């Protein structure tokens, strides 16, 4: 099991802004009651995130927009666990990196202030210029109830040349690193 002090991402200093431990290469999945919309299979990456009071809304639960930030934090930490390098950002001088092209999320149960959510992440497939990631957000037993599936999400990242402003192919090195990490072919 590899442990990495993953940056918590988000230029806004959003949810999870304090450094926390990302767990890579663990296999398996967080155990919660069955749900027909849950993602099947194993996840080799987990990122715990503590729900902040600022993440909640007038209903007292996590606002729906915060979940995409949680996935963003896990996405950046996943990249660093797989490559051993910081996520390349144009604002930090990188000429190439990745951009988010699409994100979908299915909400299953509410999460609340103070809970420690686990965001599991994996790559689903690698295309010519893009790859998909799948995320599984769960909560443990807490004062708010039993362990539960909070949400599932899928996103598409496109490799991008920030200077020319055009998509570029997924590098063979990145694709190979993702396949090694996941332990299966993705192309």
What's the structural blueprint in terms of helices and strands?
Elements: E1 2-6, E2 20-24, E3 45-50, H1 64-83, E4 96-107, E5 116-126, E6 130-139, E7 148-161, E8 166-167, H2 172-182
Antiparallel strand pairs: 1-2, 2-3, 3-5, 4-7, 5-6, 6-7, 7-8
Question: Any key phrases for this structure?
Answer:
17% helix, 187 residues, globular, alpha+beta, Thiol Ester Dehydrase, Chain A, 35% strand, eight-stranded antiparallel β-sheet
Description of the structure:
The structure is a single chain. This protein is α+β, with helices and mostly antiparallel strands. The protein has a single domain, classed as Thiol Ester Dehydrase, Chain A. The protein is 17% helix and 35% strand. Strands 1, 2, 3, 4, 5, 6, 7 and 8 form an eight-stranded antiparallel sheet that branches. The longest helix is centred in the middle third of the chain and has 20 residues, at 64-83.
Summarize this, please?
With 187 residues, this protein is of the alpha+beta class.
How many structural domains can be distinguished in the coordinates? 1
What's the helical proportion of residues?
10-25%
Q: Please report the distance between the alpha carbons of the first and last residues.
A: 25 Å
CATH architecture: Roll
Q: Look at the structure and give the CATH class.
A: Alpha Beta
**Pairing-aware structural class of the strands and helices?**
alpha+beta
Q: Which series of helices and strands comes N to C? A: EEEHEEEEEH
Continuous helix count? 2
Oligomer: single chain
Low-confidence region ranges: 1-20
Major β-sheet profile = 8 strands, antiparallel
Please tell me the overall pLDDT: 89
Radius of gyration, rounded?
A: 16 Å
What is the 3D form? globular
